[in-house]
Amino acid sequence: MNNVQTKKAIQKNWQYLVMGLLATSLIAVGAVAVLANNRADEHVTNATTGNHENADPKALLEEHGITPLTTAQASNSVDTAKDLTYIIEEEKLAHDVYQAMFDKWGSRIFGNIKNSETSHQSMVLAVMESRGLADPRTDTLGTFTNPDLQALYDKLVAQGNQSQAEAYKVGIIIEEVDIADLQRMIAALDPADSDIKDVYENLLHGSENHLRAFNRQVAR
């Protein structure tokens, strides 16, 4: 092999080496991005309200700097009482659907977010208890007092059982419905019910984070 051939062979070897290093770097960057997204989803779902499966409702509010009002301080609006009764079951629906999806598919995002939904229920319960409002929830997973929520639960679980991709879409549906309902309820609140406003805004922030997490899953 003459000097020219030797130089060409060395150049080719360097080209292959550089191409190999670039490919390895791209793979590594992709893996880091995926890991970062996964960790972001875990952080979003765990940090929103934390894992308070057995937390005392009033203590949970105090963690967020919210003091529940008494009936003497609150507006005692009939419409607000109806909204509280509805939203606590809607949060139970989110929890129960995510539990069903976690059992079906084992996706960590469902396991994390269902814990957050438990915290949401506890926060709503605290302001309900301070006003002497009855808790409409049953102790049975997938069972609801409100017939509309029962029908929605059955429909969403059936859709989510079709595939993991459909299960993530179900998460998007739940969070979008929750966001719309919370925005409507916040707009209708009497200014006297500042504690409920704080709770609703906390739940709204959590739902917005959850929606972003599910959208990331669907986009992959």
Tell me the number of structural domains.
1
Quickly give the CATH architecture.
Up-down Bundle
Q: From the alpha-carbon coordinates, what is the Rg to the nearest angstrom?
A: 24 Å
What's the shape? globular
Order of helices and strands: HHHHHHH
CATH topology: Ferritin
The total of helices stands at 7
Structural class of the helices, strands and pairings?
A: mainly alpha
Task: Summarize the amount of helix as a percent range.
Answer: over 70%
Stretches where pLDDT is under 50 for at least 5 consecutive residues are 26-52
Give the CA-CA distance, first to last residue. Answer: 51 Å
Instruction: Please indicate the percent range of residues in DSSP E strands (runs of 2 or more).
Output: under 5%
Average predicted local confidence, pLDDT? 85
For the largest beta-sheet, the strand count, sense and barrel status come to: none
The level-1 CATH class? Mainly Alpha
Total E-strand runs: 0
CATH homologous superfamily classification: Ferritin, core subunit, four-helix bundle
